[in-house]
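Lab notes, practical 5.
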Amino acid sequence: MPTGLELMQMIERGDLPPPSIGALFNMGMTLADFGRVMFTGVANGSHLNPAGGVHGGFAATLLDSACGCAVLSTLPEGQGYTTIDLAIKMLRPVPQSETLYCEGKIQRPGRTVAFAEAWLRTKDDKLLAHATSSCAVFPLG
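Output from the prediction step:
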């Protein structure tokens, strides 16, 4: 069984298929390092709210993925995680049809709870949203 970082790097290299949520949310991982991950995502017409703007759930999904995968990248073999909470600050509307960049970093790893944060930005580095997260860490199987 691989470590969390090894698993993330296998997905990044294409040795393993990406999680199915990536296709649903038009996002993918572009970097996996210990305690740090990067995702890209592009909102399209299937991500709109009733008012015609990009639904906040699109940004929330990218931010949750980046926080969770930052935690996963620090876990040893046989350990998993799940999000306990996710606090998001939406600073600007999320644009449609534009590649967005989401970086997640570990803030404090832990044996039972780990903390991470993530930032969602445009290609010209405008901050769209920020999140902090705590994740439960537990043995798999």
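Observations recorded by the TA: The mean pLDDT is 97. The CA atoms of residues 79 and 91 lie 34 Å apart.
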